[in-house]
Amino acid sequence: MFNIERPYQPLLRRPAYPSSPKSRKALEINIKELLDIGVIRKVGHNEEVEITTQVIVAWHNGKSRMVGDFRALNTYTGPDRYPIPKIQIALTQIS
């Protein structure tokens, strides 16, 4: 578990994106699986937690996966103090 430092604490709750019945069913299946294994938990309406919008991304083989849209949260986060160096710069420095 880690914390994201922000200058202030806005409560981010976004409505769900419109989706097809097929995507909605896949999302429900993914959520049920994650609830069953304890990766996620149900949140009460009065809990002060960040909630991000979940979307289904289809793979080329017909399977799908659930991803979170964290763009709203990213607008409130600060820059990384220790960013990962770009590979080209790192290779130039060691050669």
From TrEMBL:
Record InterPro entries: DNA/RNA_pol_sf
Protein name listed in UniProt: Uncharacterized protein
UniProt lineage: Eukaryota, Fungi, Dikarya, Basidiomycota, Pucciniomycotina
